[in-house]
């Protein structure tokens, strides 16, 4: 049986199932250690090869017990091992095999932290032996004194991190001699010497020691005091610079635990390491529940644009696809949505995405693509698209405004607020035609346009269903038996509260409504908040355990709206991600179409 490689434990392993700190991690002085050393035949850890085991149990500097035995490895002992250790085959012949020794050793290890010098070697042999003979490995927390020494001692103090060198440096009462018990006793003195040294690095708990032994950068070690005193509650945390400028904003269900993780070896992002160097303090914003924390994070990032946050920094940098209000409407990419009688689709995160969706519309309906303001009195020379049959040439008055509106503009307006079926059918038909002609690259391009268009339609109709409502009051159970309560007005989180366990939530809910933010309606699918905030709220509302308590109206979407194409969109995105230009969508992917379509 192949054993996984030894991995130094992380801070996460010090937490119990309910997230509370393990008592053994509170203080190194209160931690029970079993300091162990093995002698082996020198081979690979395959479940055999152990010749001697020595272990010493200590706590608070006091020796609580010892475990020592020779072990019959069941194989020949190499001569150089005899020369190195003084152990002979005659000594090992009457010794018990490892399968007889393991039960006593595992009992000796129970409830303690395993300490060894070059721990991966010793742990590897013991895990392999347990696996070979059917004993479950107890997976104790492990400290490696060699790793601790590499972090705590400089080259000026010790030339290397060998056990003999460290034992001499810490004036051990026992010098290592390649016999298991003596080497374990020497490792005990080294461990105690290292624990005294760790105090100068502000390492006082087992968790600190585990992380210190790993590859933590000097900046992380120097700045880890920034995590002191933070609350174990949901909320937002802000790393601030010396001028009080926010450098980074994050959110967590447990602020203290999350911030502390930035100072562990698990954090390897270069930009975060740079941020930690510049930070001078961490500010915590406690929130009623995780949804409020997510929303506050988005708002703080939008307000301050912290340099080390990459996402959600500029929510105002969105664009819209606008169908202009004129005799011969056209699509235009604009930065703001206004109440001007035009039809809008969006918001889009970039101009490129908006233009891709617009191209999907052009594949479906004969909207003009020029930017001219056309006159009903005078004609304008037609472009090449009219000659190719891609435009009905309203510029030359080849089509009346009423006919143009019915053929080109109305399907787009209907798609944004109701049924996008005719538009989607037309795009799918074009994909079918291209695929039948084996023009697969062109079909893939049209598919990408359909994806951009469908994403925007589904997103906008979902948002509008929520944001048109003056108020929604919803609640869900939290992990402690209380209720997370949210008051949402026009898609914006107006109030958040948590009702205590074993108390009726109505008083808390009523208080939240009375103190909630006043939110005024506005145009578009995101009138009072960013689209991202409203989508976070939607995700919370759509959870199976969320209950709608009160609503100011019906929370509904169009009967034949864009939502029914969600399966089609999923299949199209999957096909695009696999660069597959000939993926068929079955009947189940289209509720209104019995045909199969190639995407």
Automatic annotation (TrEMBL):
What top-level branch of life does the organism fall under? Bacteria
Q: Where is this region: Disordered?
A: 576-599
Q: Which Pfam families match?
A: GIY-YIG, RNase_T
Q: Which UniProt keywords apply?
A: Exonuclease, Hydrolase, Nuclease
List the SUPFAM superfamilies.
GIY-YIG endonuclease (SSF82771), Ribonuclease H-like (SSF53098)
Q: Which InterPro entries match?
A: DnaQ, GIY-YIG_endonuc, GIY-YIG_endonuc_sf, GIY-YIG_UvrC_Cho, Ribonucl_H, RNaseH-like_sf, RNaseH_sf, UvrABC_protein_C
Query: Boundaries of each GIY-YIG domain copy?
Result: 232-310
Q: Which protein, by its recorded name, is this?
A: DEDD exonuclease domain-containing protein
Q: Which organism is it from?
A: Actinoplanes hulinensis
